[in-house]
Task: inverse folding
């Protein structure tokens, strides 16, 4: 069903006209809604006897010409966000690799505690973990954000890699063992590299989530992009600029996240053309993982000999 | 441990607010997400473009930013809405593109021959989608949808963290600030309440996935 063209007829002249008309109508409705929103935002309002200018009034946007603002936003806000995200990403991938290997170990007392650990960290809000590390370990805000993100995303990446490991064709392992490799050798030299490559788009998609989640640092008091714009600059320039500053943060987040998302998609296309051609959509990491799990399940059951 | 037991009523109150956020936010997300998914497969080009842009933009916006908009920016515009209402709206909007994607990928999972067969016996777009594709897509969408709701459960904590709503995370933070000597049991207590919701849901999703997908 990836080709939705089959759902409807190749439109004839009448259907085409109808579709064009409906297209125009929905376009007009959209423009109407957007301009309604702009009018709402732009209406001056009374507050305690003073009239505040609308949200698009130039007096609310003049700070964008201030180089001090951009200096602070880019070199403190964006930099702190990226700094936390990059360190957390490296730690998360490393932790994910270790967890996936432990999770698929043949030794029960390694596998089962790892499984419980992964489930525990997966089912808990990252925010709670940040607060826990901040209050209990007393590491300061930066490490609270980084460690919580690393542990949470590490558990998820570990689960993705494990799904990748079990969804490999069984012949890979059998061939490795028949060549005289020990089970661990087979896992490290034959299976794991393939699983990692297959799951790479999902891992990158998970890193988009990680990047987004650095904004939770706002709540535990880490000076990332949101806190810098809405809190620090908000109280520096005054409340009237809050909307402007929110827009700045919004656009910067979109730029960072969209470029990483597009990278994930590009990566997924590239790996798909090289390997089996089975593609895991990186749009939703959790979903792709379920799919890989199901694939693994169907491979594990012996299929007629 | 005594602190947790002594404050159990507070915990339960926070837990019920979390469940309320989950239920109302989830319902809103389902409605919005279904509309967006329907727009994405419709024959009308403008609707498809709108839905795609909406999905891309909202999915790449951090939840904290959305909640802050609902809690900080909206009051600047005039209406003084209760914080919990802002929380509902923020969660519903943030979750809706994920719901839409889950639905869409379920529809994509139906083999194309099904739609071709339906079209070749003369069913129209509405009939094909509602009678042939959607009933089959439905069971493919349930496990991913459960995953979306697990994420939503965890995301309700952001509303408590930013939005002055006393749900589980908010309660936990207040208690931890009040009892500095018993932070560990208090926060583990909060975690257990979250796990009560997320772990069974996760097991259910894997169970359903195993049962339904392998049949294909």
Result:
């Amino acid at each position: 069903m990836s080709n939705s063209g089959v759902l409807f007829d190749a439109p004839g002249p009448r259907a085409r006209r109808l579709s064009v008309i409906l297209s125009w109508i929905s376009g007009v409705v959209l423009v109407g809604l957007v301009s309604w929103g702009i009018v709402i935002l732009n209406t001056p309002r009374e507050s305690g006897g003073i009239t505040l200018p609308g949200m698009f009034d130039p007096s609310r946007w003049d700070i964008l010409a201030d180089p001090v603002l951009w200096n602070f936003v880019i070199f403190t806000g964006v930099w702190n966000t990226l700094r936390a995200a990059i360190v957390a990403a490296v730690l998360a991938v490393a932790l994910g690799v270790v967890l996936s290997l432990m999770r698929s170990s043949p030794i029960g007392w390694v596998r089962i505690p790892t499984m419980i650990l992964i489930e525990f960290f997966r089912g808990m809000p990252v925010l709670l973990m940040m607060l826990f590390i901040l209050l209990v370990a007393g590491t300061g805000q930066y490490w609270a954000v980084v460690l919580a993100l690393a542990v949470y995303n590490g558990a998820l990446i570990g689960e993705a890699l494990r799904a990748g490991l079990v969804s490999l064709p069984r012949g890979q392992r059998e061939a490795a063992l028949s060549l005289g490799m020990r089970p661990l050798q087979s896992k490290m030299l034959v299976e794991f590299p393939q699983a990692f490559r297959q799951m790479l788009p999902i891992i990158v998609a998970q890193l988009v989530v990680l990047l987004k989640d650095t904004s939770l640092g706002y709540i535990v008091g880490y000076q990332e992009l949101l806190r810098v714009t809405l809190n620090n600059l908000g109280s520096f320039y005054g409340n009237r600029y809050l909307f402007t500053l929110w827009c700045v943060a919004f656009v910067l987040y979109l730029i960072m996240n969209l470029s990483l998302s597009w990278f994930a998609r590009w990566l997924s296309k590239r790996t798909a053309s090289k390997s089996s051609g089975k593609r895991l959509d990186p749009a939703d990491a959790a979903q792709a993982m379920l799919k890989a799990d199901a694939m693994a399940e169907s491979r594990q059951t012996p299929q007629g000999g | 441990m005594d602190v947790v037991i002594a404050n159990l009523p507070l915990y339960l109150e926070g837990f019920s607010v979390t469940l309320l956020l989950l239920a109302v936010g989830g319902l809103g997300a389902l409605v919005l997400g279904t509309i967006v998914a329907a727009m994405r497969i419709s024959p009308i080009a403008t609707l498809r473009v709108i839905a795609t842009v909406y999905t891309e933009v909202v999915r790449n916006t951090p939840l904290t930013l959305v909640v802050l908009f609902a809690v900080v920016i909206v009051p600047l515009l005039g209406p003084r809405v209760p914080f919990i209402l802002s929380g509902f709206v923020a969660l519903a909007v943030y979750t809706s593109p994920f719901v839409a994607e889950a639905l869409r990928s379920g529809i994509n999972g139906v083999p194309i021959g099904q739609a071709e067969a339906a079209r070749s016996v003369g069913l129209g777009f509405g009939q094909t989608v509602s009678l042939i594709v959607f009933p089959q897509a439905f069971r493919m969408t349930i496990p991913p949808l459960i995953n979306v709701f697990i994420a939503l459960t965890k995301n309700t904590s952001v509303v408590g963290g930013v939005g002055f709503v006393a749900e589980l995370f908010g309660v936990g933070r207040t208690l931890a600030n009040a009892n500095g000597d018993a932070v560990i049991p208090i926060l583990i207590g909060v975690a257990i309440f979250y796990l009560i919701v997320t772990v069974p849901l996760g097991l259910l999703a894997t169970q359903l996935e195993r049962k339904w997908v392998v049949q294909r």
